[in-house]
Amino acid sequence: MGLISSLFTWPLAPVRGVVRLGELIQEQVERELHDPAVVRRELEAVEEARNEGRMTEEEAAQAMEEILARLTGVPGEGR
């Protein structure tokens, strides 16, 4: 990049940095949402809550459906 173009694009550098930071955060969130280990821990937590009586059968079933829908990527569910 030349000196002149650097001078004109320099004010946009913070904006580019913020956009890139947003992209990195989105990538990390997507990775965590679809990570099988995270999903398994969430399913185990729901099962534990159901066994301890902190959740009803219906609430546990609904929570499990949402978690599995998020893993499988069923559109419109789990969001």
From TrEMBL:
Segments forming a coiled coil: 39-66
**Which Pfam family, giving just one, matches this sequence?**
GvpG
State the UniProt keywords alphabetically.
Coiled coil
Q: What is this protein called?
A: Gas vesicle protein G
Source species, please? Nonomuraea longispora
